[in-house]
Amino acid sequence: MDYKKIIGYGKKKKAKKEQPKSKVNKVLESIKEEFGYKATIKEGPAYEYSKYLKNIEKAENLQAKAVNNFAKVLEKKGFKNEARNVAHEYMNNMRKFHDYLKELVDKLI
Predict the structure, then answer these.
(1) Can you list the alpha helix ranges (DSSP code H) found in 1-79?
(2) Which of 51, 69, 70, 99 is most buried (CB neighbours < 10 A)?
């Protein structure tokens, strides 16, 4: 007599993996339909200026890397004070420009 089959251990059952269903908030969807909600708004000054601001940010990052590399070279050559001054002046000027740009964007938007 096979006691494992009687107890229920005879055949191994494979677990089925089910994809979780995404829950839809019906109330929220009805409100969106009622008020004509658009998923993405691609208009206005914020959308229009974002491309240019991203390009400025990328250029600033490249420039900062170049300045840091130059400061490292100066330090290796023994010009520690000059390296520190270059990095300090760059950071001061870029901070002022960044603050000005932030104020300008806040006014425009």
Answers:
(1) 3-7, 26-35, 45-76
(2) 70
8 A C-beta contact, residue 51 and residue 57: no
Residue 71 buriedness (CB in 10 A; 0-12 / 13-18 / 19+): buried
Distance CA 47, CA 50 (A): 5
Q: How many angstroms separate the CA atoms of 49 and 105, rounded?
A: 9
Distance of CA 1 to the CA centre of its chain: 65
Stated pTM of the model: 0.56
Q: What is the pLDDT of residues 29-51, one digit of tens each?
A: 888 788 877 666 666 677 788 88
Phi, psi of 32 (to 5 degrees): -60, -45
Instruction: Delimit the domains of the chain by residue range.
Output: 43-109
As given in the structure block, the two tokens for residue 63 are 């420039």
CA distance 56 to 104: 14
Residue 10 phi, psi dihedral angles, 5° rounding: -65, -55
